[in-house]
Write a structure and sequence with these properties.
The structure holds 2 protein chains of 2 kinds. Chain A is of the alpha/beta class. Chain A has 2 domains: 13-196, Rossmann fold (3-Layer(aba) Sandwich); 208-336, Rossmann fold (3-Layer(aba) Sandwich). Chain A has 12 helices and 14 strands. Chain A has helices at 18-32, 56-60, 72-84, 103-110, 113-116, 146-150, 163-175, 224-236, 255-265, 280-292, 314-320, 324-336, and strands at 13-17, 36-40, 65-67, 88-92, 126-131, 156-158, 180-185, 192-196, 208-211, 216-220, 242-246, 249-251, 268-275, 301-305. In chain A, helix 1 (18-32) runs parallel beside helix 7 and helix 8 (224-236) crosses helix 12. Chain A is globular, with a radius of gyration of 20 Å. The model of chain A has no long low-confidence stretch (mean pLDDT 96). By secondary structure, chain B is α/β, with parallel strands linked by helices. Chain B has a single domain, classed as Rossmann fold. In chain B, 43% of the residues lie in helices and 10% in strands. Chain B contains 12 helices and 7 strands. In chain B, the strands form 2 sheets. In chain B, strands 1-2-3-7-6 form a 5-stranded parallel beta sheet, sandwiched between helices. Chain B has a two-stranded antiparallel sheet with strand order 4-5. In chain B, strand 4 and strand 5 (192-193) form a beta hairpin. Chains A and B meet through helix 3, helix 4 and helix 5 of A and helix 5 and helix 6 of B.
Amino acid sequence: MSTPTEMTTPTTLRQLNLATALNEALREEMHRDERVFVMGEDVAVAGGVYKVTDGLLGEFGPSRVIDTPISEAGIAGLAVGAAMADRRPVIEIMFGDFLFLAMDQIANQAAKVRYMSGGAWHVPMVVRTTLGAGRRAAAQHSQSLHAIFAHIPGLKVVVPSDPADAKGLLKAAIRDDDPVVFFEDKLGYRSVGPVPTGEHVVPLGSALIRRPGRDVTLVATSSMVAHAMTAAEQLADRSVETEVVDVRCLTPLDLATITESVRRTKRCVVVDPGHLRFGATAELAASVSERTFGELRAPVLRLGAMDVPVPYSPSLEDLTIPSADDLVSAVLETMAWRA
Amino acid sequence: MAEPDAEVRSVDDEPTAGTVTALLRQMVVIREFEQATLDLYARAEILGIAHVSIGQEAVPVGVCSALRREDYITSTHRGHGHCLAKGADAERMFAEMLGRSTGYCGGKGGSMHIADPSSGNLGANAIVGGSLGIATGAALASKLSGSGTVTVCFFGDGAANQGLMLEVMNMAAVWSLPCVYVCEDNQYGEYTARDAVTAGDISDRALALGMAVHRVDGMDVLDVRRAALRAVEAAQSGDGPQFLHCQTYRYLGHGMSDRDRPYRSRDEETDWRARDPIDRVVRTLQDRYGIEFDMDGVRAEVRSEISQAIDGARSAEQPAPEAVRRHVYAD
C-alpha cells in the first residue's frame, strides 16, 4: 500500500505554475481524506510565503490548516505523533535550510519509528520544503539538502522538476504510509507547465525519460532538469543526441530506468542542485558505474553545486550553480572519450 | 499485567483497599522486573544499553492507573515501568530485550524502544526529550479527530533542558491540547545533579505558559494517582495541557556501567530509600485500611510470574535473517 500504483487518467490539461499545481494536490487530497491536514509557519492566514497553501484555510477551516509558531522541531515532532495517531499531516518547513532545526524529529523519530517498533507503528507524514540557490538569499536560505535525507533509511525523498509531476508526486506522497520529505524548487514556483486535472498520481520511485537520445544519458534532478533540457537542445545542434532522465525521487530510486538508458548510450553525466561532495551525484554516478562499467565508453561525470556556502552577491552566487553551458561542456568531454 | 479497575476514573473518591492493593502489586511487578533485568544484563543475556527505574515505580503506576487503555503514553530510555503500568506483557518485553522475534519490536528495538499499540504505548524513546513532540502530536490528533483520548508524556528532569520542550508545550497550551506532561524529576540527568544544570523550578516553565501545574510527591503512588486523575480529567474536558511535576529518585545509577555514583552521597540515597514507594503503601494499607499486606507471598508470586516470562522469552525464536530488511518502509 505504500506506493500508489494508479496512473494518470488525464481529462484536461491546464497551464499552471508549480505553486498552483501543489495547491491543487493539497486541496484534492484534503477532500479525499479527512485525516489530511496542513501545518506550518504562515500557511493558513497568509496562505504560505510561496502561496502553495493559499485559500485552504477558507475551504477547510482552522482545524485542518494550522498556523504554527516558528518552531521547526516542534512542528515536525507534532507531525510524527499525529501521524502515529492516525492523522495525515503535511507540514511546511519554509526553507530547506530550516530542516536542520527539525533534524532529530525527522531523522531520529519519523525515520526510525516503523523499524524500531518492528512495524508496530508507522508515520505517514509529508514534510514539504524547498531547495535551490539563485534567489540571492545567501547561505542560510539557499541550500539543497535532499541528499542528506536520502542518506537516512526510513525516509522517502522526492525532487519534482515540473508542475505536473509536483502535483502527482505530492498526491502519492500524501497517500504513502511512510515519512516523505518533498523538496520544491523555490525558483520554480512561478514556472508554468501543463497539469492534468483530477486524479493524477505519480508513483514514488519512477524516473522519467524526458527526452530520448542515443549518444549520452544526462541524469538530472529537480531544477537541473530544465538545464539538462536546454543543454540537450544545444547539443543537438552539434549532432549529439542526449537522453535526459529526470530522477524525480531519490528514495525510492529508480535505478533500472537510469541504467537501462546508460546501457543504450554508453555515456553518462549526472547533475544535481546539491553540493557535489558526498551528494546525490556521487550516489548516482557510483550506482551507474557499478552496474554498467564494462559497457561504458567514458567515466561517469558529475556536476553539482560548488562546495562552498552559498554566497549573496549575484556575481559570486551564479558561479556556484551548474549551468546549461557547464552541462554542454561535460557532455562534450564524455563524447571525446573513445569517440 | 495491570488490569484497570472499575472505579479508576473517579477523581474524588478515596481509593478502595482493592485499588490500593492493585497499585502496590503493580509497583512490586515493576521492581521485580527491573531486578530481573539487572540479572539478565549481568549474565550478558540483555546486551547494549538498558536503564532500570527502581525507586521510581510510583510515578508510572499512579499515572497509568488514571488512564484508559486507548489513552496514549510516550516513554523514555528508562521506560520499563511505563510499559508495564500501561499494560504491556512482561514476556514480550523480555523477549524484546533478549532480541527475540516475539518481542514487541521483533527484536529490533531493545530496552529503549518498546512500543505497544494494543496498550496505547507510542513507544519508549532513546533521545532525551525525544518523545515530547510525538506525545503532543498524538494529543493534537485526538483534538482534530475528536476521539477523546488523552496523551501522557513521561520525561525526566534532564529532558526539561531540551529546547523541544518549550516548543511543544507552547503549542499544546496555545491550542489547548489534551496532553499531560509528567516530569519524573529523579534529581539527576544521567551523571549530573539537576540543580547543577537547571535554572529555577522546572514546573515554573509550565506555569509561564499558563499551564495547570500539579506538584506531586513522586514517592507516593496515591498522591501521583490523585493528581493524575485530576489532570487527565481536566485535559480531556478541554482545560488544556497539564503538567505533573513528580519528585522521585533513581536508586541505582544512570545505566548499567554507572556503579559508583560519585556524583552523590550514600547518605542521600539512604534518605530517599527511607521514602520507598512500596514500603509506604504497605504502611498505608495497614494504617488506613487495617490490611496486612502479604509482601512475602506477593513477591514470591510476582517472581514466579517474572521467571516464567523470562523462560518464555528465552525459548522464543531469534529473528529470521530476512527480518533485517523489513519494516524500513511499508512492506
